[in-house]
Amino acid sequence: MEEKLTDQELARREKLRKLVELGVNPYGERFERTDSSKSAKAKLEGKTNEDLEKSPVRVKVAGRVMFLRKMGKASFFNIQDKEGKIQGYISIDTVGEKSYEIFKLTDVGDIVGLSGILMFTKTGEITVRVDEFTFLTKSLKPLPEKFHGLTDVEERYRHRYLDLIMNEDSKKIAFLRPRMIRAIQHFLDERGFVEVETNVLQPILGGAAARPFVTHHNTLDKDFYLRIATEIALKKLIVGGMEKVYEIGRLFRNEGMDTKHNPEFTTIELYEAYSDLKNIGLLWEELLRAVAKETTGKTSFICGGNTIDLEPEFKWVSMAGLVKDKLGIDFTRKDLSFDEAKAFAKSKGIEIEKHWTSNGYILNALFEEFCEKDLIQPTFLYGHPIEISPLTKKSEDPRFTERFELYINGMEYANAYSELNDLEDQKERFFAQLKARELGDEEANDIDYDFLNALAYGMPPTGGIGMGIDRLAMFLAEVDSITEVILFPAMKDEK
């Protein structure tokens, strides 16, 4: 069906036709810029109009027209580039009749190039006095109204290009994220870690508890999973002697979408040979402070209405300890039966799932329901049950593991282990996962026999951690939704 054009869209197409009649390419050519809006303004720091009369400052800038005040023979307008806005002043006396006629065919949203001399207006605004106007691209659709803009949040995410044009905060977040990733790389590279890339298509489901996306490789006539974690591949590199490795990459989990979850997201996973849980925790504290300072210049942030400070030493608390303090039941008791734990959980409204066959599942469910939201300041939660930690070393109490999760403002940011390197123990854990799958756990891992083969050659004691890049970006940008920090989040179809 042919698209029905609005009156504004028809008017813009008529102007496009007139531009062509005047010999103007409405979709432009290369334009050599000497400056951005920011660097142009910086050239006038400490100067006056008298200084500029003695020593004129010439610039060539380009950007999208965001404001127009057309007058008879002279006009003011604003253009926007990636670093901000700068005003332009154009007059028929300076550019000539033809160029001014071309300018009068310009609409808000068009992209133009300006050459001219910088000046201050009577109100002190830095302005380009244009002596050469270059039309670069015609915008065939009008931008949203300045004051109403994109008020529908879903429309902002669905049409991110418009969001970036209209919303300065969205643009700042878009540029903050890559700076944050570079800061992480700088920190780790300086400490001898090596960034690697591993395969996205995986024949085995493993490394995390999650439902996968499944695809089919035609040549091999075999199903593959889009990876849910990078863990197994990176630990094979530790076996191979790379010792300190990390990967920043995309993961895919076929699960729900909300303010904290997107089906494709970015993580960093890191592994350090001859390290353990405590060393990794100290490393991560230092990394988060350094990245925050390099990216934003501060270590205190507003998150969900709470002020979160990265500067103090992070707290360490146990899962069983939190549940005992909050609910009164002690999961470290040797005589706590499964029936007693189940009965207590049911009394608290917890629905018991079929594959929960021991106390660890109950403990984790009680923590998530009643304690998780209380972890506001940066906190390492340790002492996870063995049932939910199939790749982690056992603690002295074999019901628990050497694992922590980093919580900030009631949300998990990172997950770390003293990695399991005992071949026989790992085999038992994998087979326990298979039993859990048979009982209905859709997130249980497959057995990765090649990983078992790697462990047979020996993996040194190793500390490992994974952290969501998107959630860290949310924290540093001080926003509450993951869709604010992913340029193109997954969306429902438009109605």
How would you classify the helix and strand content by structural class?
alpha+beta
Low-confidence stretches: none
Q: Using DSSP, what is the number of strands? A: 18
Please work out how many helical segments DSSP would assign: 16
Q: Report Rg.
A: 29 Å
According to CATH, the homologous superfamily of the largest domain is: Bira Bifunctional Protein, Domain 2
- Largest sheet, described in full? 8 strands, mixed
Count of structural domains? 2
Q: What's the CATH architecture of the largest domain?
A: 2-Layer Sandwich
What share of the residues does DSSP label as strand, in percent? 15-25%
For the largest sheet, list the strands in their spatial order: 6-10-11-18-17-16-15-14
Q: Helix amount, in percent? A: 25-40%
Key structural traits:
alpha+beta, 8-stranded mixed β-sheet, 495 residues, OB fold (Dihydrolipoamide Acetyltransferase, E2P), 34% helix, 5-stranded mixed barrel, 2 domains, BirA Bifunctional Protein, domain 2
